[in-house]
Amino acid sequence: MTDPLRTDADTEPDPGTGDEEARVIVVGAGPAGASAALYLARAGVDVLLLEKGSFPREKVCGDGLTPRGVHQLVRMGIDIDAPGWRRTRGMRWMCEGRQVHIDWPRLGGLPDFGLTRSRYDFDDILVRQACAAGARLRTEVKATGPLTDRAGRIVGVTAVAGADKQPRTYRAQVVVAADGASARTAIAMGLERDPTRQIATAARRYYRSASRTNDPYLELWADLRCSRTGRDLPGYGWIFPLGDGRVNVGLGSLPHRRHGAVDLRASMEQWLARLPEEWGLREENADSPLRSAALPMGFNRRPQYARGLLLVGDSAGMISPWSGEGVAQAMEAGGVAAEAVALALIRPEGPAREEALRQYPREINRLWGRYYRLGNHAADLVLGQYGYRPVLNRRVMASPVLVRSLARLLTHGADEPGHDTIDAVLHTLLRLVPTPALTRGPRRRRASSPS
Ligand SMILES: Cc1cc2nc3c(=O)[nH]c(=O)nc-3n(C[C@H](O)[C@H](O)[C@H](O)COP(=O)(O)OP(=O)(O)OC[C@H]3O[C@@H](n4cnc5c(N)ncnc54)[C@H](O)[C@@H]3O)c2cc1C
Predict the structure, then answer these.
(1) Are 319 and 412 in contact (CB under 8 A)?
(2) Does ligand 1 lie within 6 Å of residue 29's CB atom?
(3) Can you tell me which atom of ligand 1 is nearest the CA of 327?
(4) Residues 6 or more apart in contact with residue 76 via CB below 8 angstroms
(5) Going by CA atoms, what residue is nearest to atom 16 of ligand 1?
(6) Where along the chain do the CATH 3.30.9.10 domains lie?
(7) 447 has pLDDT over 80
(8) 31 CB less than 6 Å from ligand 1?
(9) I want to staple 240 with a disulfide (CB 3.0 to 4.6 A). Which of 32, 64, 281, 396 is the partner?
(10) Ligand 1 site, residue 50, Cβ cutoff 6 A
């Protein structure tokens, strides 16, 4: 019997043009794309993963994973006991001279540790896993736009390949956009950003620090100030240990509601100058330039499925509005998208398949809709105005129950079904939040260039 999901005759590039076909194309091989490709390949789907860069490669990130991210790595079959992975015991929040340690909870459904690893080879490991499962990877292939049929449905992408930018065409029945914050594929298909949602920016730099590199905690600073206005920074600073002699130090912030963009570089310099000399977070110990990038959060691009295209990870603004964490979310959404696509492809083309693909945003909404909606409100009302300082006030920091509850809320770390009273309270809180509509917000244009 032939496998309905594979099209083996088409898995070789056209010898003349280099053009290729697959059942599914995934654009972008970050955590979202690697995860989607891995789960599709595991389901036996012929999948082509297109990546504009090549691996290993740098990606501006804090390199920190909460237990939710560890859970996703374990699901993907990544060997997290191999060298290079550094386990963390919990978070340490610092605020106005006070500090509180919050160990990752011992729950049934999530690991009780976090991890750090530089994104320099983190993405490479995930992509190798996807290839080992059967995904076809093409690096140095930059998707330049969607190919659409007369109805405006995506049927592949155009691209340029290699150093000499050879024009290529890649065709598929379904396309997954996992091209990160640029969201180039989504934008070209007319899926625009919700302008009411703010985009945070974050900057990070590596430092050599013998005294901090083996810290068992992710350290977060809540009382930073915006260098320009002197006001509370609507974000936080971090020092994440990498265990290889280095720490990843950074700062992320929403734009200040009334005072506009935050100068990340100057605000970071001001903060680092406050830190003890012996930590070594000084210019002479810097191991990289300061690099910054955008953090699209709070589901800022919807719908997450339209006309053959699924949006996954940063391309859909899936970074948590509570914490700025996006790697776990990208990997988890990749899995949800892959399952929806695999189930859709066993249906005949047409309305039945379409209905199965529409299950992807519904499932994401079921899993995270209320949490993100509440997080967006929290960002609008508190975090985006005053940052985390008022939240981590003296009373909260002195109460073990309150800090543990806050930590689980910020990291989406409650067990499902609830494990203890804190989980029960958080689940009740989320049940009170109305489920968001699936397609509210952004205006939709038609894609520009039918093929
Ligand atoms: C400074 C900073 C610190 C952060 N710290 C953390 C943290 O500590 N923990 C955490 O969980 N999250 C963190 N995040 C967020 C996290 O980095 C992202 O949410 C995550 O990388 C999203 O994964 P993704 O696969 O959706 O996108 P990306 O990781 O951006 O991957 C997109 C991929 O698509 C490729 N691509 C783009 N355009 C094209 C194209 N046209 N054709 C082909 N390929 C293309 C890119 O080269 C890239 O490989 C941080 C972000 C920033 C900016």
Answers:
(1) no
(2) yes
(3) 11
(4) 35, 38, 126, 129, 331
(5) 326
(6) 200-295
(7) no
(8) yes
(9) 64
(10) yes
Determine whether the shortest distance from the Cβ of 342 to ligand 1 is under 6 A. no
pLDDT of 257 over the 80 cut: no
The β-bridge partners of 292 are 203
Identify the pLDDT of residue 270: 96
pLDDT of 448: 45
320 vs 77: CA distance, rounded Å: 24
Q: What is the pLDDT averaged over residues 81-101?
A: 96
CB-CB contact of 442 with 435 (8 Å): no
Range 138-142 average pLDDT: 98
CA 15 to ligand 1 center in whole angstroms = 33
Neighbouring residues of 136: CB distance < 8 A, sequence distance ≥ 6: 11, 22, 46, 47, 48, 49
**pLDDT of amino acid 451:** 38
CATH of domain 8-58+121-194+298-431: 3.50.50.60
Q: Is the CB of 249 under 6 A from ligand 1?
A: no
Tally the residues of the chain: 451
Which residues in the chain are classed under CATH 3.50.50.60? 8-58+121-194+298-431
Q: What is the pLDDT of residue 10?
A: 54
